[in-house]
Amino acid sequence: MSAMNGMNGMNGTSGTYLGMPAFPEAAREAVGNTTLRANLRHATHTIRDKRARAVAELDDWAALREAGRQIKDHTLRHLDHYLVQLEESVTAAGGTVHWAADADEANRVVTRLVRETGESEVVKVKSMATQETGLNEALAEAGIRAYETDLAELIVQLGEDRPSHILVPAIHRNRGEIRDIFAREMGRWGRPAPDGLTDDPRELAEAARLHLREKFLRAKVGVSGANFMVAETGTLVVVESEGNGRMCLTLPETLISVVGIEKVVPAWRDLEVFLQTLPRSSTAERMNPYTSTWTGTTDTDGPRAFHLVLLDNGRTDTLADEVGRQALRCIRCSACLNVCPVYERAGGHAYGSVYPGPIGAILSPQLRGTASEIDASLPYASSLCGACYEVCPVAIDIPEVLVHLRERVAQGGEVTRRGVKVTLRPAKGHAAERAAMRAAGLAFARPGVLRAGRRLASRTRRLHPRTLPGPGRAWTATRDLPKVPAESFRDWWQRTGGGKDSGKDGE
Fold it and tell me: Are 312 and 81 in contact (CB under 8 A)?
């Protein structure tokens, strides 16, 4: 049975980590873990500093970023067309396409395909989509063992842990912890770790190679995701740094790829943009050491059977949101995690999703909805500093989407989930916020009321408390309440003559 099964508490239907608290509670516990914070601080600062240097090498980085945004937006606007074209191209090249409306359907399809081969184990390329669906757990229930072959995913699997980072799932572990996991757990999964294993990175990597080599040579079925799918040719692309992906994509007789429908791009030439921006934004490399592309099947090389499972699982619903849909541009580089001050202190597990950090805070609530306590809390897991937007290689305005989702959480209302109208109740604890926003809306819609309120605030400023009472106490406990000036800008403008020709007080 998979060591992940039953250990990480993931619900295969929704991708929610069962039993996990909302973000504020989970983050409060995480920030008290000094080892975790030290691991995260060292890793994120190292990665983001290297990324900044790699990006600075390109004079046309801003143009590449804009090109990536435009390609993704164009594709999303015409997603139906490009998905049909993709299916036709994959089929013409000898592959078989399956459509999965949700995680359960995707898991059923993959489980059936593996059973039809008669095999009871698969090797896997690192895949966010299969983590999202909880595929490992579904396969384990069917008596099929899934082996993760990415080094960081292997560490997570052997440690009966959960991924905490998009690019480096074991970022929360240090070398000593990894050595202990290898020494303790490798023997239960196959070849044991060498005697006297130390925490030297070269020794750890060699132990992983020896452990995985027998699995690569034995496995008849490989499971992957894909970074991109090219509609015009039916080509799938995986970029990675270790070579395990190349082994999984070429050695097995059957290859099954589970990919989100948003990963399609129109043409081969579009890869020219993303194969520059993705490696620099993720691993700070000029190009990935391994870029694997495959188009259907051939008689003389690679797998004899290829199956592509196209996963929706909330993406169509996200596409319908004009503000939120930009989250579907994401190319999973993880740059936003490495610059986020909240992620650096709380870590990935606090987000309760396989998508942590700023992108997870806007993607997970859209894919899963905001009805649960944990998903309703994610849009608030940010200081709105904007660092995530600045580094995003496809210019996703994450702060804009966060504010948009906060409005949805605070107001409730009706949304469509999986083709069904669902009424969302306003989140608990937001009554005071909703009342304040409505009052502010009424005031801003009436210039006279706003002007009177400003003048009243100025004249009573000496009576204003330093902290707010009631529900406002939580806000002022961590923030300074700004002082009200003696005179508003508009009053000053009118008094000094600046507004002589502007009518009534600039209104």
Answer: no
